[in-house]
Amino acid sequence: MNITWDAGKYTEDFSFVHRYGNDVAELLDCGAGSTVLDLGCGNGALTKRLQEKGFLVTGMDASPEFLAMAKETYPELSFIQADAVSFSLEEPVDAVFSNAVFHWIEKEKQAAMLECVGRALREKGQFVFEMGGAGNNVRIHGELEKAFAEYGYSYKMPFYFPSIGEYASMVEEAGLQVRYAVLFERPTELKGDGGMRDWIDMFVRTPFEAVSAPEHREAIKSRAVEALRPVLYKDGKWYADYVRLRMKAYKR
Ligand code: BEZ
Question: What is the 3-state secondary structure (H, E, C) of 13-29?
Answer without folding.
Answer: HCCHHHHHHHHHHCCCC
